[in-house]
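1st attempt posting a full record on here, be nice pls
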Amino acid sequence: MAVPKMSQLRPGVMVNVVLKAHQQSGKLTTGQISEILTRGDHPRGIKVRLSSGEIGRVQSLSLSSEHIATAQTPPYVQTSFPSEYENAPNHSGGRRRGRSPSQGDYRQDPTPLESRSLADQIKTSPSSRATHPSSSTAVKDTTQAAMEKEFPKLDTALIAAILADHEDINNARGILGSLS
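the predicted structure (as tokens):
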């Protein structure tokens, strides 16, 4: 038996649902929909909250649903989702509740994508910029090259890490000498 489609359901409709606690037994509970919790059709049934507060998946429409639905639909219940949810991609892994405004959307950023670079995304602390000015980069590169020639058996990444940790070159040379 096929479960009802989203187009058949709206707040106020009487339905038969399987509550979470009764999934194993399949026991049906009849009630009136107060809120639709699933955004689209679902093979096991659309999840709804009944007016009694219980939550379950709709298995079928109750016989008198159309009569009650037209007479008792509460005016304050939202029957459609806001437009921000309509075009949201359907992800099969995990839950997706919709994009909240706090997450931000790069497509709404006022800066055009073409004029941004990766450097705009990297945040460095003011202290690291002060201790590593760009003029000393060339000096560090030549020091690195000299240490690599002096200690050819050591890995270049190890040499770079020790040079970064020790500003005194003689101290770094002593540590590298003890490692080789």
